């Protein structure tokens, strides 16, 4: 796990923290125990959430843009599952991510975004194309850029911020001073659909393997 440190202060009213249920706190305790067993130089130790069946991690990289974080997350994998910026589709998933990782960042990118020519406010998407039917915007959000949300990208506020566990929209490369890193989810991205040509080659390969296997059998088995 790559934990970040809040690097930018701010003032203003604080919202009440998101609920960390006992089960989530227990998961967090296990995560800390695993971290204690992990050498400081080791790479990430993603944490499993049984309600989604996915692993999650936070990668510390201050002032990284959403697009750079998105590319980095898509290049990651764990337990055979492709990574992507985390997608939050339920309150339970939001609580889990916030309670396990929220203590370690000020702002962290999620996998939500708008196309630049999109028509707000019904244009938010997850990079996985999951349904956009759960949101956890902080009051007054989304509000940018320029007041009319368009071309924005979603981030979660950390536990020391003004709206712990809630979401903010932010443009890609122009307001990243408070970004601590990004949240990764393994298993949310659907498997790519094979190209028709690939399917044909796969079928031919399987047929060839079956023929070779049959030829290797003992003559008495081919009677
Ligand atoms: Ca998800
Ligand atoms: Ca905003």
Instruction: Characterize the main sheet.
Output: 9 strands, mixed
CATH superfamily of the largest domain: Mannose-Binding Protein A, subunit A
CATH architectural name of the largest domain: Roll
| CATH domain class of the largest domain | Alpha Beta
Give me the strand/helix succession. Answer: HEEHEEHEEEEEH
Q: For the terminal residues, how far apart are their CA atoms?
A: 58 Å
Bound molecules: calcium ion
Features:
binds calcium ion, 26% helix, single chain, disordered N terminus, alpha+beta, disordered C terminus, 223 residues, 9 strands, Mannose-Binding Protein A, Chain A, 4 helices, 9-stranded mixed beta sheet, 2 domains
Structure in words:
It is a single chain. The protein is an alpha+beta fold. The chain folds into 2 domains: 22-192, Mannose-Binding Protein A, subunit A (Mannose-Binding Protein A, Chain A, Roll), CATH 3.10.100; 193-223. 26% of the residues lie in helices and 20% in strands. It has helices at residues 22-37, 66-74, 91-101, 196-216, and strands spanning 47-49, 54-60, 77-78, 81-85, 107-114, 124-126, 153-157, 167-170, 179-186. Strands 1, 2, 3, 4, 5, 6, 7, 8 and 9 form a 9-stranded mixed beta sheet that branches. Strand 1 and strand 2 (54-60) form a beta hairpin. Helix 1 (22-37) runs parallel beside helix 3. It is globular and about 35 Å long. The termini are far apart. Residues 1-13, 35-43 and 217-223 have low confidence and may be disordered. The structure holds calcium ion (2 copies). One calcium ion binds at residues 141-144, 168-170. Residues 52, 87-89, 93, 185, 188 line the site of one calcium ion. It comes from Eiseniibacteriota bacterium. This is PEP-CTERM sorting domain-containing protein. The chain crosses the membrane at residues 24-49, 197-215. Residues 51-181 form the C-type lectin domain. InterPro entries: C-type_lectin-like (IPR001304), C-type_lectin-like/link_sf (IPR016186), C-type_lectin/snaclec_domain (IPR050111), CTDL_fold (IPR016187), Ice-binding_C (IPR013424).
